[in-house]
Amino acid sequence: MTSIFRTVMGADFDRLHPQLQRRFSVGLASGEACTGRGVMDRIWHGPAFVKPFLALGTTRNILVPRAGRHVPFTIENVPYTDTHGRETVTFVRTFHLPGRPRRFDAQMVLSPKGDRVLDYLGTHQHLASDLHLRAEPDGSLLIRSGEHRFREGPVDVRVPDLIGADAEVRESYDDTTGRFHIKVRVVNKYVGPLFGYEGSFEATYTDIATCGVRPGLRPVREESRA
After folding, report:
1. I need a labelling partner for 194 at 20 to 30 A (CA). Which of 47, 118, 161, 183 fits?
2. Exposed/middle/buried for 32, CB within 10 Å: 0-12, 13-18, 19+?
3. Nearest residue to 194 (alpha-carbon basis) of 205, 184, 202
């Protein structure tokens, strides 16, 4: 067994920086969970009229409606087996903004054919998108989102470009500082940039047999459709 990320990337995975290889080897096979703690130098959002949509997303821990600088940040990557028997890795990001923390939740699983990573968003996994992963020449990782789908009960529809958005994530490792650097942009085809953040963090690893999955980390509802 290998991690879901190595399975999808194949030989390209070996071109990642060794520290990125370890971080994205988190899974049931490695037996490790990863927690990153650091600071987002900047959290930004687009024009004022997108704020209501960002605020709506926060009701299900999707996106962050508030901008800020030098915001303490935590990301929890914990593997577990979901209620449908699939290996899942959490990507739960907590932004410690003034007033109260804001969360951006995602859970990643391997597609049935093993050819892509599926990213479920939010506490109820109503939104899902395909992820395309690529190692860059400098050893960093580039992740781009693909098709987005909305799923609830019998409803299973593609999110139209007019209201959907494409995400781009770039993650690298700095040997000098011993920190991971991350930059995220979420862009609508017609409106332009909606939301993003950039900063750095240090990672620690724990044995999942010892730490398990803490309460509140898993979603309220788990979607079976891939």
Report:
1. 118
2. buried
3. 184
